[in-house]
């Protein structure tokens, strides 16, 4: 049984590989990476490092050859780029006759109106079209996505949001990685959809938990989208990224990440890390 993880030099991919190594022999693991030089440490540990570029389909044909179970980690970039890359990866998996595809998707992807949803919808549809057994890992939101806001608070700034009372199912990236590893290496996950969402919290509830961790009250500044964009611009967010950060706030405000589910706990076989403890880990990593 040969397992392969794409994007294994990225933050999530690395964590998935490290988690797999706790239970799977290195000889059964392969990784597909755009730049194999960045994965030399994995090769040294006995992992089969393969060159696979989502923009060069013929590299994926070689990368996916002989693979039984594949984890496609969603790529970065604009929607058009991601749709093309994800489609290339899925079509290569079909040509390689991979036996199972797990894919890191987005919460409630099929119905989501979040501007990030189209690449995930396209990937899920492409996978379904292949007829290959699959599992969609619909990740809600990494707590690590809030690191810039936490850093701002540590520097004395308020927590700024235009998400109003919209709720998010935050969890640590490590826990998303553990869930992905459990599905890739486990049994009984064929043709499944897992909504991986932590305990639903508003921005205010998250900020209260952060204040408890820091031992001080953290001011919360609720603004509209235009003000949010201005503040983010002043904070150094590049112009091209402003519609992205505003769009995320808007999606949260509209309830796009308000997804209640126990799937996370089922896959991990334990409760998720409580938000205060998770935030403490984030803050400790910044100090």
From TrEMBL:
InterPro entries: NAD(P)-bd_dom_sf (IPR036291), NmrA-like (IPR008030), NmrA-type_oxidoreductase (IPR052718). Gene3D superfamilies: NAD(P)-binding Rossmann-like Domain, UDP-galactose 4-epimerase, domain 1. It comes from the Bacteria. Residues 2-232 form the NmrA-like domain. PANTHER family: NMRA-LIKE DOMAIN-CONTAINING PROTEIN, QUINONE OXIDOREDUCTASE 2. This is NAD(P)-dependent oxidoreductase.
């Amino acid at each position: 049984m040969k397992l392969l993880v794409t994007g294994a030099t990225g933050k999530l991919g690395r964590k998935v590989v490290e988690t797999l190594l706790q239970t799977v022999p290195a000889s059964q693991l392969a990784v597909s990476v755009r730049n194999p030089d960045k994965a030399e440490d994995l090769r040294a540990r006995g992992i089969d490092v393969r060159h696979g570029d989502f923009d060069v389909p013929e590299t994926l044909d070689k990368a996916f050859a002989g693979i039984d179970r594949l984890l496609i980690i969603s790529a970065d970039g604009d929607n058009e780029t991601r749709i093309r890359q994800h489609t290339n990866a899925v079509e290569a998996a079909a040509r390689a006759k991979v036996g199972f595809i797990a894919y890191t998707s987005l919460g409630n992807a099929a119905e989501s109106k979040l501007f990030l949803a189209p690449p995930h919808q396209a990937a899920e549809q492409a996978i379904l079209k292949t007829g290959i057994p699959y599992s969609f890992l619909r990740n809600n939101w990494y707590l690590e996505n809030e690191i810039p806001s936490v850093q701002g608070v540590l520097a004395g700034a308020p927590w700024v949001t235009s998400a109003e009372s919209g709720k998010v199912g935050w969890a640590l990236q490590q826990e998303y990685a553990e869930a992905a590893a459990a599905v890739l290496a486990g049994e009984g996950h064929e043709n499944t959809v897992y909504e991986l969402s932590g305990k639903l919290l508003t921005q205010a509830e998250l900020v209260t938990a952060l204040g408890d961790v820091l031992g001080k009250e953290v001011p919360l500044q609720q603004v509209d989208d235009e003000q949010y964009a201005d503040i983010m611009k002043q904070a150094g967010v590049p112009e091209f990224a402003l519609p992205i950060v505003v769009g995320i706030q808007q999606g949260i405000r509209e309830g796009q990440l308000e997804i209640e589910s126990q799937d996370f706990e089922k896959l991990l076989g334990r409760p998720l890390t409580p938000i205060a403890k998770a935030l403490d880990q984030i803050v400790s990593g910044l100090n």
